[in-house]
């Protein structure tokens, strides 16, 4: 029996439409699916523990081989809602910024925007688990994923990083895309894209299947307005500019 493809994916709500399609497809007999937070999946791809992953794009320069294999991504063409700087004070008063330990791409994006868009000289703090409780006073924090959706009502100021990037560059942003660290057969990738597409075409079914979300955020809005899944030419331009900025 041939070895199954080891596929890594972020365990956040934003991946659910793509993974729903994969899990409903016949590809599951060929796949070993591993789910974790973004930085962990990225490290798995670097270390060769997985063959392909829906991983933060900041990992691309760290890979010996980086094959961007899919038509789909986790991107944004407007406010993304789930990647933000949260603060009790306005931007001009922020002195410290905690950096989400679960992130690679969003942390780099926050640094770029703070330094180049907001023109802020702040103290960056590498955060540990539980850091969200330390966001207060002049200490802000980058929070990503489902926890960011939950945090939206807990802070006075929310700075959406995708929205800021678009205002700064005029281009959409790509947070993650399907990347392989080796050549993957075209027939598998074509079938994989069709599976992703199936999930995106059945958003109501995806939402009905989610029983573990407690963010209070409207998931239909999130999947159809905040997250933009097509890895189109404008997103590729935005990705190229981001990678050049690293």
CATH superfamily of the largest domain: Periplasmic binding protein-like II
Strand content: 15-25%
Question: What is the name of the CATH architecture of the largest domain?
Answer: 3-Layer(aba) Sandwich
The gross shape turns out to be: globular
* Widest β-sheet, arrangement of strands: 2-1-3-10-4-11
Structural class: alpha/beta
Q: What is the CA-based Rg, rounded?
A: 18 Å
Query: What is the arithmetic mean of pLDDT?
Result: 95
What is the CATH topology of the largest domain? D-Maltodextrin-Binding Protein, domain 2
> What kind of sheet is the major sheet?
6 strands, mixed
The count of DSSP E runs of length 2 or more, i.e. the number of strands, is 11
Briefly, what CATH class of the largest domain? Alpha Beta
Q: What is the share of helical residues? A: 25-40%
The CA-CA distance between the termini, in Å, is 42 Å
How many distinct folded domains? 2
Structure summary:
This protein has 246 residues and is an alpha/beta fold. The chain contains nine helices and eleven strands.
Would you kindly provide a written description of the structure presented here, covering whatever features stand out?
- With 246 residues, the protein is an alpha/beta fold.
- The chain folds into 2 domains: 5-76 and 172-245, Periplasmic binding protein-like II (D-Maltodextrin-Binding Protein, domain 2, 3-Layer(aba) Sandwich); 83-169, D-Maltodextrin-Binding Protein, domain 2 (3-Layer(aba) Sandwich), CATH 3.40.190.
- 37% of the residues lie in helices and 25% in strands.
- The protein contains 9 helices and 11 strands.
- The strands form 2 sheets. A 6-stranded mixed beta sheet has the order 2-1-3-10-4-11. Strands 7-6-8-5-9 form a 5-stranded mixed beta sheet.
- Helix 1 (16-24) crosses helix 6 (186-200) and helix 3 packs across helix 5.
- The N and C termini lie far apart (42 Å).
């Amino acid at each position: 029996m041939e070895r199954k493809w080891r596929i890594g994916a972020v365990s956040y709500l934003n991946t659910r439409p793509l993974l729903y399609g994969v899990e409903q497809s016949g590809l599951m007999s060929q796949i070993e699916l591993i789910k974790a937070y973004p930085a962990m999946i990225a490290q798995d791809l670097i270390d060769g523990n997985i063959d392909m992953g829906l991983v933060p794009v900041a990992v691309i320069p760290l890979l010996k081989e980086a094959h961007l294999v899919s038509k789909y991504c986790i991107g944004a063409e407007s406010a993304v809602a789930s990647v933000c700087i949260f603060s009790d004070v306005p931007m001009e008063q922020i002195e410290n910024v905690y950096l989400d330990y679960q992130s690679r791409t969003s942390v780099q994006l926050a640094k770029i925007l703070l330094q180049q868009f907001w023109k802020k000289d702040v103290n960056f703090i590498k955060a540990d688990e539980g850091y969200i409780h330390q966001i207060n006073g002049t200490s802000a924090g980058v929070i990503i994923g489902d926890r960011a959706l939950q945090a939206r009502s807990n802070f006075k100021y929310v700075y959406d990083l995708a929205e800021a990037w678009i205002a700064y560059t005029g281009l959409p942003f790509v947070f993650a895309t399907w990347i392989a660290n080796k050549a993957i057969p075209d027939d598998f990738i074509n079938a994989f894209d069709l599976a992703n597409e199936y999930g995106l075409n059945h958003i109501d079914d995806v939402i009905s299947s989610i029983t573990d979300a407690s963010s209070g955020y409207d998931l239909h809005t999130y999947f159809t307005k905040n997250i933009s899944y097509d890895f189109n030419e404008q997103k590729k331009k935005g990705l190229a500019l981001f990678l050049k900025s690293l």
